[in-house]
């Protein structure tokens, strides 16, 4: 039994998932993996099912009926993990934007260095993003600045999706009261952890854009974040936010 689980949300990641799973299982530290797939038409879930024979007891799959958003996929995965004995619960994209070799550093920041949340951060030391078009780098960097300004959090990479949580953080945040369904979910989780005074550490990582498959970023995801963050801060000022 491993005390750490990597949760990977997937939508149409057939070109990445097998290589990523094999890569994670070849690391020196042993983690379990949970894939939360939203009925990807490209057969991502079927690929995971076929790998489960080889990685029996270490690779898990939760299949949802339709594409319901990155945020709700993670909430689903968190609840699944909390029902089991995992002490460290890690979020990661399926497309190799997050380097699997950084997983151990992320894990150790919580397991050895006393953090409650460890964030694999692109913006601690300048901008560590490879192969994103300039427009996307600017959008992400400005989004992080905007969130810092509005919320008052001192985190550099507020939209990061490469995060290790200690179990107690996910037990204390009310997962049923997370409102955002898209990437803004990442901001909301960090904000709630910040309001609860959890110890948050950022470790620098290099984010490399995917070479296979496509991003699921959309206009709806952006506007959810832009307007949602102000609303979230406003509610917290009047103590109306549920942690
Ligand atoms: N199950 C499920 N998975 C999804 C969904 N939407 C996206 N995903 C999965 O979530 C991961 C990230 O999605 P991408 O579409 O590849 O994200 P990105 O554009 O590269 O965005 C990155 O930057 C964002 C902003 O900084 C980050 O918030 C995000 O986590 C990610 O690192 C991938 O594994 C993708 O398959 C969904 O609706 N359902």
UniProtKB/TrEMBL annotation:
Q: Which residues form the Glycosyltransferase 2-like domain?
A: 6-173
Natural source organism? Gillisia lutea
Which InterPro entries does the record cross-reference, listed alphabetically?
DPM1-like, Glyco_trans_2-like, Nucleotide-diphossugar_trans
Q: What is this protein called?
A: Polyprenol monophosphomannose synthase
Superkingdom, according to UniProt? Bacteria
Task: Answer whether the UniProt record assigns the keyword Glycosyltransferase to this protein.
Answer: yes
Query: Could you say which protein family the record assigns here?
Result: Belongs to the glycosyltransferase 2 family.
Q: Which UniProt keywords apply?
A: Glycosyltransferase, Transferase
């Amino acid at each position: 039994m491993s005390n750490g689980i990597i949760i990977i949300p997937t939508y149409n990641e057939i070109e990445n998932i097998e290589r990523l799973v094999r890569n994670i299982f070849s690391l020196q530290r042993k983690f379990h993996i949970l894939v939360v797939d939203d009925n990807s038409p490209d057969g991502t879930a079927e690929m995971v099912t076929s790998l489960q024979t080889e990685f029996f007891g270490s690779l898990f799959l939760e299949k949802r009926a339709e594409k319901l958003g990155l945020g709700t996929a993670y909430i689903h995965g968190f609840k699944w993990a909390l029902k089991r004995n995992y002490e460290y619960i890690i979020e990661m994209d399926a497309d190799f934007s997050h380097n699997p070799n950084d997983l151990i550093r992320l894990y150790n920041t919580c397991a050895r260095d006393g953090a409650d949340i460890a964030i694999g951060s692109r913006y601690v030391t300048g901008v560590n993003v490879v192969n994103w078009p300039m427009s996307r780098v600017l959008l992400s960097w400005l989004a992080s600045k905007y969130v810092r300004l509005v919320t008052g959090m001192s985190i550099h990479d507020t939209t990061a999706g490469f995060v290790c949580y200690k179990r107690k953080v996910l037990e204390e945040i009310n997962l049923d009261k997370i409102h955002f369904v898209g990437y803004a979910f990442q901001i909301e989780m960090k904000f709630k952890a910040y309001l609860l005074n959890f110890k948050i550490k950022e470790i620098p990582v290099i984010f490399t854009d995917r070479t296979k498959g496509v991003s699921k970023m959309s206009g709806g995801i952006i506007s959810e974040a832009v307007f949602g963050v102000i609303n979230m801060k406003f509610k917290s000022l009047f103590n109306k936010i549920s942690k």
